[in-house]
Amino acid sequence: MQSEKASYPLRFVVLCDSMNFELWQANCMLEAVNSGSAIPVGIVFRDADTSSAPQNSWRRRWDTRQLALWRIFDRFYVRRFSRAARRISLENFFAEIPSCLDRPIKLGKFSEKLSEKALDFIRSVEPDFVLRFSYGILRGDVLNVAPYGVWSFHHGDPTLYRGQPPGFWEIFNASAVTGSILQVICNELDAGTVLHQGIFKTHASSYVKTRDTIYFGSQSWVRRTCAAIQANGWPQAAATERGKGPIYRQPTNKEMLHFLWKTVRKFCTNQITYRFYRQDWNVGTIDAPITVVAGLSGRELQSQALSSVHWMEPTQTGFYADPFGYEQDTDGSIRLFFETFDWRAGRGEIGTATYSNGRFGPVTTALSANTHLSYPFVIQEAGRPSFIPEHAAARDVSRFNTDSEGVAIAKTTIFPKSELIDTTFVNWDGITWAFATIEAETSNTHLYIYYANSMAGPWHAHLLNPVKTDVRSARPAGTPFVSEGRLYRPAQDCATHYGSAITINEIIKLSKTEFEEHIISRVAPVPYGGYAYGLHTISKVGGRTLIDGAKKSLRMPR
């Protein structure tokens, strides 16, 4: 897969404390520079000795003793076990970059501004933007010293959570998701232009995992924003008016005790769930078009359609999931392809069956392998059906033609040596697009796009990959479809747990240099037929719709 390179790198100055950066910060800059999207032209070090009257450390600890538990937790647990917070030196990387030592001017308790010496230095190297990894709340001329302003990460959704510690209060308040933004800061706190934003799963049993998720999950945003500016220009829209959440502080000892109790309790609950319960999936058909099932015709019609699911007879040795299919020309019946998972083998293969007049035919094997197979996305070209299964375990995305019984008979590789998950294809504006996530910790959060003139390739990575960061609506969940000239894309909502529901996204912009979509509806698990725990695939077959559903079952001894 080829990736389009930026025509010129954006110049930036880093505001920091030293050459030792947290790992996610280092990755952020290295990715931007190595991609050709940005180049460092200066470093401003914040002088740590900025207090005119340093307070005795023991006196300071006594005065803030109500925060002692948080300080201990942060020092001996978070800093020790967080991968994102691990410090690495970039001294060699920045060896030839000019630098300046700044002693900022305090403006009240939390705000400060750069010295004239530092401002003159920044002006002399002529950056396009300033990247902030240090300092308090910045005020003054530094906010306007670069054409694209000062960029700063806020790890938390500022409409709900401001202040610190990042990701802590989301766990404390039992929020299912934790937001992050990259913004251009201005004189008003948390009111600048948002350059990129993402929504991540809150790991209620682990603060370290939550923090690492939001830090590592946002490290590509500077590179992505630079590439977007180079391709599409600076976004001219002014900073939008948005609600602001309360400002949180470091937790008190009482709050820490409550927090620790909640995380331990959640950890125990998770262990019980993982050890004694499992998701049992099944496949069903609905005699209604996908627009109705997706909720585009209103909730009442959607509810009526979901209440009329024809479920397959469940298997006793595993489950069925990820249904796709096509209408057979002979009698209008549906040929289905789906994952058939075997509990004993611990992996899935691709099964096939027919559906006609409310009944399913016997399940047979369409494709098997020594590693896990799932999500057999069906395409038809020149009237000939084929399917493309998810086979990330073998680092393979290939297309399989089938015979009249649905058995795979010929293989064509599409993405060799690729760990793409749930690859989903659609033709739009004369281009073939592939949507997928990648086998990693962000497999439910980061959406990637690839494009080609046809299925034969060659394939190119989208300039802004990952184009979207949202655990509620990134991972593909079935066939894209068109209604009234608009393109819609189903995606998994994994905020509460894997496969909890489906969101329907309307794609607003889709080009080689742009992507934008918005959630417009939701398909919740079917409350009828016993599969109310999850739903993660919806696919179109003519005027009918295929879905799957999950129930939570006790693990039986093997």
List the helices and strands and how they pair.
Elements: E1 2-3, E2 10-16, E3 20-22, H1 23-34, E4 38-46, H2 57-63, H3 68-81, E5 87-89, E6 99-102, E7 105-107, E8 111-113, H4 116-125, E9 129-132, E10 137-138, E11 150-154, E12 162-163, H5 168-172, E13 177-184, E14 194-201, H6 207-217, H7 221-232, E15 247-248, H8 253-276, E16 277-286, H9 290-293, H10 299-306, E17 310-311, E18 318-327, E19 334-342, E20 347-356, E21 359-360, E22 364-367, E23 374-381, E24 384-390, E25 396-402, E26 408-416, E27 420-428, E28 431-438, E29 446-452, E30 460-461, E31 468-469, E32 481-483, E33 486-493, E34 501-510, E35 515-523, E36 538-541, E37 544-554
Quick gist of this model?
With 558 residues, this protein is of the alpha+beta class. The chain folds into two domains: 2-56 and 82-251, 3-Layer(aba) Sandwich (Rossmann fold); 278-552, Glycosyl hydrolase domain, family 43 (Tachylectin-2, Chain A), CATH 2.115.10.
Give an overview in words.
Strand 34 (501-510) and strand 35 form a beta hairpin. It is globular and about 80 Å long. It folds into two domains: 2-56 and 82-251, Rossmann fold (3-Layer(aba) Sandwich), CATH 3.40.50; 278-552, Glycosyl hydrolase domain, family 43 (Tachylectin-2, Chain A, 5 Propeller). The protein has 558 residues and is an alpha+beta fold. The chain has a seven-stranded mixed β-sheet with strand order 6-4-2-9-11-13-14, with helices on both faces. Strands 1, 27, 28, 29, 30 and 31 form a six-stranded mixed β-sheet that branches. It is 19% helix and 39% strand. It is built from ten helices and 37 strands.
